[in-house]
């Protein structure tokens, strides 16, 4: 295929032709190479990529992986994946041929990751996350591009799935906290929504007046807010089950109605809580210091709501529907919080036997 020098710019240009996956003949041009050798090397890599040959470099395959996956994944999720690929995976495997990466190479990479960087060790959960991402890349090559096996899966994971104890506030702890932050209305109303409905932080920050029905006293969750690359992004909620309508207690419905009245000039489609996640985290810290309650994460307010509902006697199915758990199995992770029913079962069985004897 033609590789020629542009005498005016003193650079090399490649014109290459290929057949795409639909069987169509294509032609493309790439300019600006400093040497003929660079132009030829780039041409060979492009041809391998178009044919999806596994002799391509890992770096080149990542280009295919991005093209295949990026549009199928939520933007905030992809941002996290892209950061892991760019900072934890490509620096190690970038120039290696995809087909040449063996289990021993994965082990060496794992050892380097477990040693951390600049004296800082990665958490067990993060180690598992970055391994899962590497394994997902090889799985993609196996499933769609003919790689014989996934060397990362053969080695096995590192780290662990569960990171920390599930923390939560009791109702009494939350009320102390809420009183401490009442001097800032936007903080107070934001945390009221988080604690009394169990919605996620991104769901809170995406709320608009149109999401509230004050006749039915409900709030509809159908979107999530993210700050990505210094831009405000509204996405779909985390999962399909996250699309839900939540019944609010009377006092919360009145509080939200009052809050909206205070937002001068707000339209029905404007975000009500125009603050950042950083602001909420700062207010969480301020409130815990003023109130003296134990420090928890903002996401732990969701755990706190689930704990409150369990204490009130609601079933796992009802709780899962309210908080938008994708699977009832997620709700059963709170199993240790559900009260034991063994004594109650035994007493009822005793009563049945007793009633039967009385009849006889």
Alpha-carbon Rg, integer: 28 Å
As an assembly, this protein is single chain
Could you tell me the number of beta strands?
8
Counting structural domains, the number is 2
Q: Find the CATH superfamily of the largest domain.
A: Intergrase catalytic core
Overall mean pLDDT stands at: 84
What is the highest CATH level, the class of the largest domain?
A: Mainly Alpha
Structural class: mainly alpha
Ends apart, CA distance between termini? 99 Å
- Report helical residue fraction: 40-55%
The dominant shape is elongated
Identify low-pLDDT runs. Answer: none
SS strand fraction: 5-15%
Sheet with the most strands: spatial strand order: 1-2-3
Query: Can you summarize the main beta sheet?
Result: 3 strands, antiparallel
Elements, N to C (H/E): EEEHHHHHHHHHEEEEEHHHHHH
Number of helices: 15
Provide the CATH architecture of the largest domain: Orthogonal Bundle
User: What is the third-level CATH name, the topology of the largest domain?
Assistant: hpI Integrase, Chain A
């Amino acid at each position: 295929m033609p590789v020629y020098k542009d005498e005016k710019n003193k650079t090399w240009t490649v014109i290459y032709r290929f057949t795409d996956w639909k069987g169509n003949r294509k032609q493309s041009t790439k300019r600006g190479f400093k040497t003929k050798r660079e132009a030829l090397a780039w041409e060979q890599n492009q041809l391998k990529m178009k044919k999806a040959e596994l002799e391509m470099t890992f770096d080149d395959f990542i280009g295919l992986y991005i093209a295949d996956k990026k549009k199928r994944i939520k933007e905030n999720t992809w941002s996290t994946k892209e950061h892991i690929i760019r900072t934890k995976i490509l620096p190690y495997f970038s120039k290696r041929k995809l087909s040449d990466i063996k289990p021993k190479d994965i082990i060496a990479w794992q050892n380097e990751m477990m040693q951390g960087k600049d004296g800082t060790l990665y958490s067990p959960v993060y180690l598992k996350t970055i391994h899962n991402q590497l394994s997902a890349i090889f799985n993609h090559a196996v499933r769609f591009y003919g790689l014989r096996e996934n060397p990362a899966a053969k080695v096995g994971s590192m780290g662990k799935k569960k990171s920390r104890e599930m923390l939560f506030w009791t109702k009494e702890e939350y009320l102390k906290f809420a009183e401490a932050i009442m001097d800032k209305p936007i903080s107070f109303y934001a945390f009221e929504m988080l604690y009394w409905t169990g919605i996620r932080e991104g769901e809170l920050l995406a709320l608009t007046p149109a999401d509230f029905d004050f006749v039915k006293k409900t709030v509809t969750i159908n979107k999530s807010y993210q700050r990505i690359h210094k831009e405000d992004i509204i996405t779909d909620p985390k999962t399909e089950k996250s699309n839900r309508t939540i019944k609010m207690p009377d006092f919360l419905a009145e509080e939200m109605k009052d809050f909206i009245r205070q937002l001068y000039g707000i339209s029905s489609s404007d975000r009500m809580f125009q603050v950042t996640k950083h602001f909420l985290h700062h207010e969480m810290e301020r409130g815990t210091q003023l109130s003296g309650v134990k420090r928890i994460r903002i996401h732990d307010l969701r755990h706190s709501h689930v704990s409150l509902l369990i204490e009130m006697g609601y079933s796992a199915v009802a709780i899962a529907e309210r908080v938008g758990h994708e699977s009832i199995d997620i709700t059963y992770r709170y199993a240790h919080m559900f009260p034991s029913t063994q004594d109650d079962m035994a007493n009822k069985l005793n009563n049945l036997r007793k009633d039967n004897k009385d009849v006889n």
